[in-house]
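Q: How would the structure tokens look for this protein?
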Amino acid sequence: MKKTMIAALALLALPLAACGGNGDGKLAKQVEKAADNRADAMEANAKDLQEQAKAERKIGDERADAIRAADVNAAAMTPEQRGEVIANDAAAVR
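A: Here is the predicted structure in token form.
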């Protein structure tokens, strides 16, 4: 009877021992979920940056067209003035 009781307790304890019972599965899921959330945020930021890049290219194209249409005398400009136009810091081309 004693041996049967010990064997029964051992069989009952076996599934508990397999679980570990230390919460590592829950922690692992939380780590995975947090990483997924960070990755989702990065992907959203990347999409926003792509849209901003498209808008910036469009603005550059429009500014270049306006400069060509105005027939700007770039040779008469100082290097600083040309630099401001290129960097979009010149008020006349914003």
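The mean pLDDT is 84.

Residues 28-93 form one domain.

Upvote if useful.
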